[in-house]
Amino acid sequence: MPHSRAAIGACALAALLLAACSGNVRDSAPSGSVSIPDLPDDAVPRPEPRSRYGNGPEYEVFGQAYQVMDSSSGYKERGVASWYGKKFHGRLTSNREPYDMYAMTAAHKTLPLPTYVKVRNLRNDRSIIVRVNDRGPFVHNRIIDLSYAAALKLDMIRDGTSLVEVTAISFDDLPRDRPVRVVEPAEPPAPQPVPAPRPETPPATPQDHEIFVQVGAFGDRANAERRRAALMSGGIGGAFIFADEAATPPMYRVRIGPIEDVDDYDALVLKLEALGIADPYLVAL
Fold it and tell me: Which residues contact 53 (CB under 8 A, 6 or more apart)?
């Protein structure tokens, strides 16, 4: 799940860094604890100039090309979040800021750098705001990589991954007459040593939500039945039709679940891709 936090250009060119980008080695939390003394406040969204580094407009990692978005406006996506921590603490992010595992930051493959996003854990409904200043995660079926502190606030350190909703907080639609102060990036400060955290009792976890995968919404129930039959023929069980009579006109939504965890979701996505079904939508109830 973790990957190299070196600048994208270096990662694409250097074999050593590319090996680190593979994401096959799990990162670690601070030694001797699953918590930190004082959780940081959420990142505070503010207009910032687009970074001179890490913004493409196109880059390539592991033979896969990525197009950096022109704007973060309207971006919302549900999927799997991972996190990275001690292994990369102090290394440069893609926009050449030192990575701080205790800051509220994140990595994303295509959002402009920097971008502020709200991340909601679909399982427990906890939400945070982070500043995206890095590229990644370059692992199949992952949409965002959170700092250690951000993952801790979402209560996803133990599992390592979580099903989340990511929503961009965009300043692109500000009135044109509103001034935005452009600040030239300063020389990055030297990374600080990792402080030794003290153990503390994790906060109580809110009631978990059941999560389902929606793979179609149809106005005609017969079409929904055909989708469900195709899933069954493809070896996918647990599919059912939810008659959404609150919609106008009524909709028949084909859902699978409940989903137990990220491993369950990953396996299901692979089966759906084999059937030619893309972009499954996560529903938390």
Answer: 7, 94, 95, 96, 113
Half-sphere exposure of 170 (CA within 13 A, CB side): 16
For residues 134 and 247, membership in a common domain is answered with no
This prediction's pTM:
0.80
Gap between the Cα atoms of 208 and 125, Å rounded? 8
Enclosing domain of residue 107: 8-169
- What Rg do the C-alpha atoms of the chain give, in angstroms? 20
Tokens describing residue 148? 């250690």
Six token digits for residue 98? 């030192």
**Does the N-terminal peptide bond of residue 112 adopt cis geometry, omega within 30 degrees of 0?**
no
Asked which of 142, 169, 196 is the last residue of a domain, the reply is 169
- Tokens standing for 177? 């007459």
Worst-scoring range by mean pLDDT, 5-19, 97-111, 181-195?
5-19
Q: How far apart are CA 270 and CA 253, in angstroms?
A: 21
Question: Is residue 201 a part of any domain in this protein?
Answer: no
